[in-house]
Amino acid sequence: ATLSAALGERGAITKKRRVFTMDDARIYLDDVDQIGQFIDIAVTLTSSDPDACYARAKEIRDRLKISEDAIVPAAYLDMMMDNLSFDDDIPSRKSTKKRLGN
């Protein structure tokens, strides 16, 4: 409430999230109302080398067989406000959803 009062609020999303841990990483499976299903990989920065973090995330992504073109570089709220969903004709979003089994 304090943060909303200080910064204002653009909107809200509703999602169901499953969290898996793998050594230095967390893997989030999100089912976001109105826009679809996503996977998010977060790697803990254990050194001052961000390239090591990116390499680790790519390693996990490769193990999960998620291609580079399946990456969606947008926030859930932005996609929802732009009325985007997996039903839109955007191949990268469709391929991400397909990889999550839908």
TrEMBL record:
Classification of source organism: Eukaryota, Metazoa, Ecdysozoa, Nematoda, Chromadorea
Top-level taxon of origin: Eukaryota
InterPro entries in the record: Adenylyl_cyclase_CyaB (IPR008173), CYTH-like_dom_sf (IPR033469)
Protein name in UniProt: CYTH domain-containing protein
